[in-house]
Amino acid sequence: MKTKFLMGNEAIAMGALAAGVNVVSGYPGTPSTEVLETVAKNNKGDIYVEWSVNEKAAMELAAGAAYTGARTMVTMKQVGLNVASDPLMSLAYLGVKGGMVVMVADDPGPISSQTEQDTRTFAEFAKLPCFDPSSVQEAYEMIQDAFEYSEKYNTPVFFRPTTRVCHAYASIDVKDEADYKVNQPEGFVKDTSKWVIFPRTTYLAHLRMEERNTELKGIFSEYGKNQIIPSGAGSECKKGIASHGISFSYVSESLETLPQKPDVLKVATPFPFPEQLALKFLEGKDEVLCVEELDPVIEKALTYVCGKYHLPVKIRGKFTGDVVAAGENTCDSVKESIAKFLEIELPKASVDTSDMPKLPVRPPVLCAGCPHRASFYAVKQAMKGKKSLFCGDIGCYTLGNAMPLDMVDTCLCMGAGVNITQGIGHLEPDTNCFAFVGDSTFFAAAITGVVNAMYNQANMTLIVLDNSTTAMTGHQPHPGTGVRMMEFANGNRPVKPEDIANKINIEQVLRGIGLTTVETVNPLELDKAIETVARVAAEDGVKAIIFKSPCIALCKKEKVATVNKEKCVNCKKCIRELGCPALVTDEEGHVTVDVSQCTGCMLCSSVCPVDAIALK
């Protein structure tokens, strides 16, 4: 064993490597992304790693590999599970041969997601075992357990860390590489009764699933990560606390400073629930407070156990209003809930903060120099005075909703903007309908929407914002970049020219679907961009404009903009219309450029009415 300082996601990846994982697939999404990237960086060439086109593809690929006896892991965030749920629900019935871990990183808060979803609830819905780590060290250890249970019971299993585990750092004990498990897949063995799903086989599989989960309730009651932490000798406290994941860490920290120390039930496998362990924990209790995020999973399970065994224990938590119903827990919120539950008055803060100024509000904005700003501005100028609809999508360009651009009227989920545009457009034919989508999202979720538009004769303009990367989640490659994960960040292996994939050309894809008007333009050539939008949008049917300009994080210019104060009339049009964070005012109220942020894109020069902005 050795000690390493690791991020939670890195620890999960290193645990998977120690478990002998053979295949890792996924789609980037915060807070899950670093897991697959860490595997890639530590891959010596014997593990197949890929960023799949979306989570559904990743799930199916991992399943196919698991059919051969390979140990596989598929990574995603909680909204990605929605995309992957179709194959997963059927896979739950068919099962696998090799261990298969579905690593779903939940995002309570939400911090960087469009929904607050609890994968523990999905595990119960899918009838699949779920592992829920509470720390970086436990995440490293538990994912190795997850592979073992998956392989033993021939079933996919969920591994559900949350943001505060994924992005926490800790010094942890890890195995030496010599101690890593080596898994040699047997290979795919044809058996239609096993690998072909039919109604009759599904019925029989359902019976087996229920039997397995009943067995696991007892097995998990003996699993070492599920624990009862006693209050200590001599305590007569009739109250208890049940928790899980990072909330368990908050509970432990809170109890260190409180005078009462109730028993604590730590639930590491929320499904199947460790019923016998819970029954032991409930003995002699009058009340139990469930501290969890997001859904009342433990609260419902304990309520069921009390009813089943006729226990006079009051279960409190989200249902009873003792714990907040939404959002992530914090050390402070957990401590307050516990203190109220234990009827302890917390001391008032020793420092008076009533006269402290409030922190400034800093809403997220597009980066200085982001080409998406120019794309949105070009469409806005071309459509000025016309009834228009601007449907957005998931990515950096969601920030096009911010003032002063105000160019995102709808945003639902990945790829939805293309179809929402059609839904509104069919009922409002006098509206100029635009759907904005990024290059990575185009491949992941939008192609079928364009096919639908062509088939059903919609009247819309597709705007593809092609910045040659998956920018929002950390600049991962995608099918349009020509780089695969086996070559990306591989560390030890030289890249051979024949290994580089052919770039998939978005314009060719669109023309293959049937679009006859597809134009590519650099949005930073503003006049040409505005003219192109006005001309293309005036055509009937489905047409597309590809705004192609690299993300400024990939291609920064050496020169920056400067304001000629003698020419500047201080009209502030550049600030009012673009909202670029590099455009600021000095102490005297004059427009100036923050050179620490400016990338020299010169979009501001294009909108300046007096030519007062130039490169320096």
Walk me through the structure.
There is one protein chain. The chain has 20 helices and 22 strands. It is of the alpha/beta class and 616 residues long. It folds into four domains: 2-197, 3-Layer(aba) Sandwich (Rossmann fold); 227-341, Rossmann fold (3-Layer(aba) Sandwich); 371-548, Thiamin diphosphate (ThDP)-binding fold, Pyr/PP domains (Rossmann fold, 3-Layer(aba) Sandwich); 561-615, 2-Layer Sandwich (Alpha-Beta Plaits). Strands 3-2-4-5-7-6 form a six-stranded parallel beta sheet, sandwiched between helices. The longest helix has 23 residues, at 199-221. The chain is globular, with a radius of gyration of 27 Å.
Keywords:
single chain, 616 residues, alpha/beta, Rossmann fold, six-stranded parallel beta sheet, five-stranded mixed beta sheet, 16% strand
Secondary-structure map:
Blueprint: E1 2-7, H1 8-18, E2 23-26, H2 34-41, E3 48-51, H3 55-67, E4 72-77, H4 78-94, E5 100-105, H5 119-126, E6 130-131, H6 136-153, E7 156-159, H7 163-166, E8 169-174, H8 192-195, H9 199-221, E9 227-229, E10 239-243, H10 245-255, E11 263-266, H11 275-282, E12 287-291, H12 297-309, E13 314-316, H13 331-341, H14 371-382, E14 388-391, H15 416-427, E15 432-438, H16 439-455, E16 460-466, H17 506-513, E17 518-521, H18 526-537, E18 542-548, E19 561-563, H19 573-578, E20 583-585, E21 591-593, H20 603-607, E22 613-615
Parallel strand pairs: 2-3, 2-4, 4-5, 5-7, 6-7, 10-11, 10-12, 12-13, 14-15, 15-16, 16-18, 17-18
Antiparallel strand pairs: 1-8, 9-11, 19-22, 20-21
Helix pairs in contact: 1-2, 1-6, 3-4, 9-11, 10-13, 11-12, 14-18, 15-16
